[in-house]
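User: quick one - fold this with protoporphyrin IX containing FE bound?
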Amino acid sequence: MADAFLSSPPVNKNNQFSERWMITSAIIVIILVGILHSVSKLVKRLKSQGATAASLPPGPRGLPIVGYIPFLMYNGRKIPIHRQFNDLAAQYGPIFKIWVGGQLHVVISSPALAKQVLRDDESNFSGRDLPLAIRACTYGGLDLAGLPMGRDWNFMKKVVLREVLSNPSLDRCYELRRSVVVKALREVRSGQPVGVLELAHKMVANATMAMTWGGSDHGDVVDKDKTRRLGDEMMTLMEQPNVSDAFPLLARFDLQGIGRKAAEAAGRFDRIITSVIQKRFDGEGSLIITEEGKEKKDLLQVLLETRERSGAGSSLASMNQFKALLLDITPGGAGNIATVIEWAMTELVKCDKAMTNVKRELDDVVGLESLVEDHHLKKLNYLDAVVKETFRLYQVIIQRQALQPCTIGGYDIPKKAKVMVNAWAIHMDPRLWEVPTEFRPERFLESGNGMMPFDFQGSNSHFVYIPFGSGRRICAGINLATRMLKYVLASLLHSFDWKLPAGEGGSTVDVSDEFTLIIKKKKPLTIVPTPRLSCPDLQA
Ligand code: HEM
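Assistant: Sure. Structure tokens for the protein plus protoporphyrin IX containing FE:
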């Protein structure tokens, strides 16, 4: 972040130093004034809500004004935030606080307290404090993840769960994702190293776009690669730490330029989505007729028909909310899925036993003469366990905001405090999981320990397993995420044998991670494919 402050362009070599010094000093003064103002406002707010420092959760001392930011960012070891929070929980307990600039963050690391936040007291913890870049990219927070829980959110969530991303709707657009995935498999060359994240991202993002609005294969409206790159650009901006988020008074200065860049990228994305929707209103490209003569609807078509039925033009059905929802699906959801695929492949190339088991199951269920198809997925139990175990190891922090002052675990939580459930810490707790750091898909196949079977809702595992959050604000894309992830992962594993490049062994694979909005692999996984199917579909 410091670099961003100091990187104003030099005008003249001779006075470069004094120019920089003046700009830097000016920025520092603005920051200090802004920070002091934010802090004094916050102290007043806390006092007015009756929360005293003594009744807040315990936590590490930060520095005046900036709070704990320097320790999180410059601790010399670059430890990702989910791991730092886990270390702090070991010191301060399952609920602790830190100040990030003028903002109070409360971090939760136990199933019982997660249940209170996500389920028992969910309407109070249903807020989301959106970073400015996310607001800029989602029409001011109009996407489903950003909308406050209320009439519009209820309507949109119902539309998504019952119509757009329901299983029947995803069945209807299977051909659209299949054609993209098969095309990408055909492009994989035997013996040539493949960057797994890049390939998975291309497959998932293009397939998601094809499912969502038909893509360029069906209507020549959108250049898929260009749109995917634009989506990446937006995601990168959303993930960047922004000083304006920690010190809202500085937001108007947009010191890092993140707000401006995000608004500009969002404008370009909006033009794409608007042109796609306009074509639909003009009656173009709404239905796809497959080779078997069946009509298939893409997700946008389902969305527009639902909007029509619900009375188009009402505030509930505001067009920007619908457009923002498309952004949740792609690029938002697609990026998450590709990241989890890279983690799953990483664990499998490291673990011969799991790789052998998953391949044996694919051979039994699918056979070496066929590609994986959607209908096979329900029978792939070991693959299901691999996916669940990958979610356990690489899941993330669930972010909410308190809408009213309240208490958790006996501590006061003031209104507007950011409440973060560190799902990763819960998934890694040795009191809850046997050898939690080990990749062991079998733990999701076993039964009889009183907590099985694990699902993705949180409640039947007593909040020990919460990769998609829980309660009414639970992830809206579970169906799409799990079906797409299993389909792409199974297709890659069944179509090719994957080996590490010469000289690398399973034990040497780098598994270091970093936290942005999700847990990402720091060093991309590169592996080498050898075809294993005698299947005409793969011969282009
Ligand atoms: C690997 C895949 C994914 C993971 C691990 C994941 C995880 C999550 C988590 C942890 C939350 C917060 C839930 C809470 O606050 O309790 C969430 C919310 C959400 N996710 Fe996902 N997600 C994934 C994929 C997707 C996809 C593909 C979509 C596509 C539509 C999606 C759409 C959403 C939306 C709209 C919300 C906000 C729901 C609300 O606030 O009501 N996610 N997701």
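One thing worth noting: Residues 16-48 form the longest helix (33 residues).
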